[in-house]
Amino acid sequence: MNILRTEAIPGSGRRVFIPSLPTRWDAATGQRVGVYNLHDAAQFGVLFTLSADTQCEEESLTAIKTAMSDYDNQDYILAIGDVARIIAAVLAAQESANSARLLQWDKRAQKYFVTEVVFE
Q: Percent of the chain scored above 70 by pLDDT?
């Protein structure tokens, strides 16, 4: 397995899979809202939330595997939220493309970096 970390280039992907979208209760609206602002992530492709943090684990894992059945090396996985769901997304990517590209936010640099995992 090889792991490479590079600066992410906006517009270089076609889809950004979000295995787990953390939410919080917003008393003002009476609804659950996303914890993170994903505006910058949308520069890398169309955002697809694969499971809600309120779903049970089994439903989430099935939804991730199904949604990512056509994952290819132009897609990204946004590495936020539940670690088990991120791992499930990486394993689904391995089945489809033998690699996974993870978008990771760097707080200090205030931008995304790509960690690419290539399975050999």
A: 85
pLDDT tens readout for residues 97-106: 999 999 999 9
The set of residues, in sequence order, having a beta carbon less than 8 Å from that of 6 and lying 6+ positions away, is 113, 114, 116
Position 85, amino acid: R
Tell me the pTM: 0.84
* Averaged confidence pLDDT in the chain: 86
Kindly list the structural domains of the chain, giving each domain's residue range(s) and its CATH number in brackets, ordered by start: 2-118 (3.40.50)
Please report the DSSP string for the chain in residue order: -EEEEEE--TT--SEEEES-B-EEEETTTTEEEESS--TTGGGGSEEEE--BTTS-HHHHHHHHHHHTTT--TT-EEE--S-HHHHHHHHHHHHHHHSEEEEEEEETTTTEEEEEEEE--
User: Which candidate, 86, 110, 84, 112, places its Cα nearest to that of 100?
Assistant: 86
* AA letter at 54: T
Distance CA 24, CA 52 (A): 11
At 33, the amino acid letter reads V
